[in-house]
Amino acid sequence: xxxxxxxxxxxxxxNFKVIANSVAxxxxxxxxxxxxxxxxxxxSLNLISQAFLAEAILPRAGVDVxxxxxxxxxxxxxxARTVDExxxxxxxxxxxxxxxxxxxxxxxxx
Length: 110
Prior knowledge:
This protein folds into 2 domains: 62 residues; 40 residues. 85% of the residues lie in helices and 0% in strands. It is built from 2 helices and no strands. The chain is elongated.
């Protein structure tokens, strides 16, 4: 007894659907893996570039401890001098303002 054409057609359609879904799923997984691999590769390249940059910059940016202490002392001395100068200027301005606020005494009627 030969198989009914509708059964053969339904089984063929079902098999095609299963195969198509598995291929689509495989393609989606491959795309996800490709994106994950790209991100991982980019992270690795960033780490390598940071290491190279550090090796290039650190020898040039190195400062001797005595040099750093000297620079700090100069900066502090400049700050103290600047604050002192500002205090002197403010005191002088206050004296000027005090003189400007004084009213002249009235002298004789007019």
